[in-house]
Amino acid sequence: MSRGTAALAGIASVAAALGVAELVAGVLQRAPSLIIAVGDVVIDSVPGWLERWAIATLGRADKPVLLAGILVVSTLIAAGLGILARRRQVLAAAGIALFAGLGIAAAQADPRGAVLLTVLVGVLGAATGIGVLFLLMGVARTGRLPGRAASEAIPVARAEGVAERAGTVDAGRRRFLTVAGGTTALAVLAGVGGFLLSGRERLGELIASIRLPVPVRRAEPVPPGADLEIPGLTPLFTPNEDFYRIDTALRVPIVDTESWQLQVRGMVDEPFTLTYAELMELPQIEADITLACVSNEVGGDLVGNARWQGVPLRALLDRAGVQEGATQLLGRSVDGFTAGFPTITALDLEEAMVAVAMNGEPLPAEHGFPARLVVPGLYGYVSATKWLAAIELTDWDVDGYWIPRGWAKEGPIKTQSRIDVPRPGATVAAGRQPIAGVAWAPTRGIEGVEVRVDDGPWRAAELAERLDVDCWRQWYLPWDATAGRHVIRARATDGRGEVQTDERTPVAPDGASGYPIIEVEVQA
C-alpha cells in the first residue's frame, strides 16, 4: 500500500467522522457542532494582536477563513493518521478517538450544549471514523470488500503474468478509490444534512412570522434632504443584509423564542426574568443609531446606520433597582460572550435599548435575534451584545470578553468621516465632480465637514439635513476636477465643536483616528 493510498484512507475516515458528528448534532438539536466548538476555542485562545490582524486583514471573511483553516488542518492530520495506519492501525484509530475527544472537550465551553448529548455526538463520530478506517485499509490491502470472495483479492504472490497482475492491481485500486470517494461524498452529505437539520430554516420562518408591536415613541420622520441620493454615496439607512457583522460566533446561534429568557441580575434589588413574549409586551421605542466597530480602520466600512426598535434599558434597570456600587452593565450572550459599559450610560441615554427590531423588521439572526443591546456612542466591543441572555450589574473590576485581549475598558466612538465618492483609486473625468461621504459622532452629532484637495485650502462641504445626533450625516462638495493625480482629505466637526484629529493611530486599543485620505486620477 502506497503512502498516498493510506493518506486518502485517513482523510476519508476523518471526513466520515466529522460528517456523522454534524448529522447527529443536527438531529439532536441541543448538541453543538464539534467543528464549530473547536473554532470557538481557537478564537478564545489566540492572542489579541492576532485577532486584531485577522479582523483588519480579512474583515467579514475572518470566520470563513478560520473554518477553512480548521478543515485544512484536519485534512493534514487525517492524512497523517492514514499513513500511520499502514503499520500501526490501532494507533491511528486511537488518533481518531483523540480527535473526537478534543472536540468534545472544546464543546464543553458552550453553555448551551448538553454534556451527554455532546459526548454522544463525539462517540458516534469517532466510531464511524474508526470503522471506515478499518474498512478502507482492508480494501487497500486486499483489493476487495469484506465478505466478498477471496478470489477477488489481488494475487500478487501467485500472479504468473505481469499483465494479469497489473490488471488485478488496477481493479483493486479502482475499488479502493470508489469506496473512499463514496464514503467522502456520504460524509459531505451528512454534514450538509446536519446543517439543514440544525433548525436554521425554521429559525428564518420563525423570524418572518413575528409581528412587531407599535412603539410608544417613534423615531422622527426622515426630513427632506436627509438622504442626498448621490450615486455611490452610502445610503442614510444601511440595509440589514449589508450591515457589517463582527462578532466571535463562528456559527450564528439558533435561539428558540419559546425557551429564550432574558435575566436581569447581579447588583440589583429585585432580579427578574423575562420571556420573549413578556419582553415584546413592554413599551418600546424607536431610534436612529449609527453603530461602529472598534476595528474599523479610517475610511473603513465596519460602520452602519439603522432604525432600531426595543425596550429602553432605563426601564429595565428602574424595575430591577440598581444598587450602589453597580458601576457596570455587563451583557451576556447565549454563547457566553460578554461586553460591559458604564451603568450611568444606560441610565442617561434614553435611546439605549434591548433591541428586538432593525429597520422595521425583527432582528435578523446574524444581528442578534431574538434580542441585543444597542447603545449609542459606544463601540460595539463594549456594548453591542448580540443574542442577549442576561443583563448583569457588576462593579467596574469585572472585564468583558475583549478587555483582557488588549482593548480599552471604555470605548466611546470617535468623531469620524469617510469619503465614498469618488472611490479610492478611481479614474474620473475632468470637470464638475462630486466629493461625498458620511460622518458620524453618535450622541454629539455632526456640525460640519471640510474637504481638502491636494495642498489647497479646507473647504466646507454641504451637509444633508440632520436626522438625529446618534446617526451619521451625509455630506457633499462639488469639485472642479483638473487632469492629473489628486489627493483628497476630509475632516468632521462634532456637535461639541471638536474637530476630527489628523493624528493617525491604529484601531487598538480604543479605535483608529486620522483623516480619511484617497487618491484619484482625473483624465481630460
TrEMBL record:
SUPFAM superfamilies: E set domains, Oxidoreductase molybdopterin-binding domain
Superkingdom of the organism of origin: Bacteria
InterPro entries for the chain: Ig_E-set, OxRdtase_Mopterin-bd_dom, OxRdtase_Mopterin-bd_sf
Keyword annotations from UniProtKB, A to Z: Membrane, Transmembrane, Transmembrane helix
One GO MF term attached to the UniProt entry: molybdopterin cofactor binding
Residues spanning the membrane: 65-84, 91-109, 115-139, 176-197
GO biological process assignments: sulfur compound metabolic process
Sequence segments annotated as region (Disordered): 494-513
Record domain Oxidoreductase molybdopterin-binding: where: 250-402
Ranges of Basic and acidic residues composition bias in the record: 494-505
Protein name per its UniProtKB record: DMSO/TMAO reductase YedYZ molybdopterin-dependent catalytic subunit
Source species: Blastococcus colisei
